[in-house]
Design goal:
single chain; alpha/beta; Glucose Oxidase, domain 1; seven-stranded mixed β-barrel; two-stranded antiparallel ribbon; about 20% helix
């Protein structure tokens, strides 16, 4: 089998989620003074490709260190929906099932195409990536929970539509733009009680997710294969940077 890396490179330029601090990397030992190099990394856990655990959104939820390895690594599907989404599209279950057969217990990764706007990419557009990506609604969240997926992953900043997160308050200009473009109020499309529904509903059903998938994702679209996510097993950690790999037939 051939491993295909689905992980964004990590650097001091890697953004945390909206309003989160950026990573800091520094030296505390150098060759000239110590004969060895040692560095210190300070980072939010929600930067770059990372795995959110139940603890991130549920009081008393399981931490990232307690996720069984056979849940992190198993068979799944990588579904391309990039041809049916655009800025601020609302994802529905049929966007997935129209493309591929999915089975209960699978890992589900879906490709929106928005990874091409991530920092460091040739088409980098940080505002479009974080503020205008497609995202699921309550119907999609309940379907994810019903399917009992091992976990889901996607090549954008959140499983939630950006206007169904705190971005609607943090970036009022983006919220106004959304309402002008769609002709709808945010509250009509995403009731306030449903904010972060793609976290709250699936996570309570034990279905967590990986945000900011990237790397060579374009090489493995619309296929069933073995998939693995490898977060740091942090005891008491609510999330962790991770590596995501698809294992395909050579």
């Amino acid at each position: 089998m051939r491993p295909v890396d689905l992980t964004h490179p990590f650097s001091i330029h890697t953004p945390g989620w909206v309003d989160y601090p950026s990573p800091k990397l520094s030296y505390f030992q150098r060759f000239a003074t110590n004969g060895i190099v040692s560095q210190l990394l300070e980072t939010p856990l929600h930067a770059g490709t990372h795995f959110d655990s139940e603890m991130h959104i549920i009081s008393g939820g399981a931490d990232v260190g307690s996720i069984p390895i056979d849940r992190l690594c198993r068979e799944g599907v990588i579904v391309d929906v990039s041809d049916v989404v655009e800025d601020w599209s609302v994802l529905k279950p049929h966007h997935i099932t129209d493309k591929m057969e999915v089975r209960k217990g699978d890992i589900l990764i879906y490709h929106t195409g928005y990874h091409r706007y991530f920092n460091g990419s040739p088409e980098e557009d940080e505002e479009r990536y974080f503020l205008r990506h497609p995202g699921g609604d309550r119907e999609f969240a309940e379907w994810v929970a019903e399917m009992q997926f091992a976990w889901t992953g996607f090549d954008c900043a959140s499983g939630d539509h950006p206007m169904n997160t705190s971005i609607r308050y943090k970036r009022a200009d983006a919220a106004r733009h959304y309402e002008r473009q769609t002709g709808s109020t945010i509250e009509d499309v995403f009731p306030i009680d449903d904010i972060f529904v793609m976290h709250k509903v699936p996570f309570r059903a034990g279905v967590c997710h990986v945000e900011n998938i990237g790397g060579e994702l374009d090489q493995v679209l619309n296929r069933r294969c073995q998939i693995g996510a490898f977060p740091i097993p942090i005891d008491g950690g609510e999330a962790s940077p991770c590596r995501v790999v698809a294992f395909i037939d050579a």
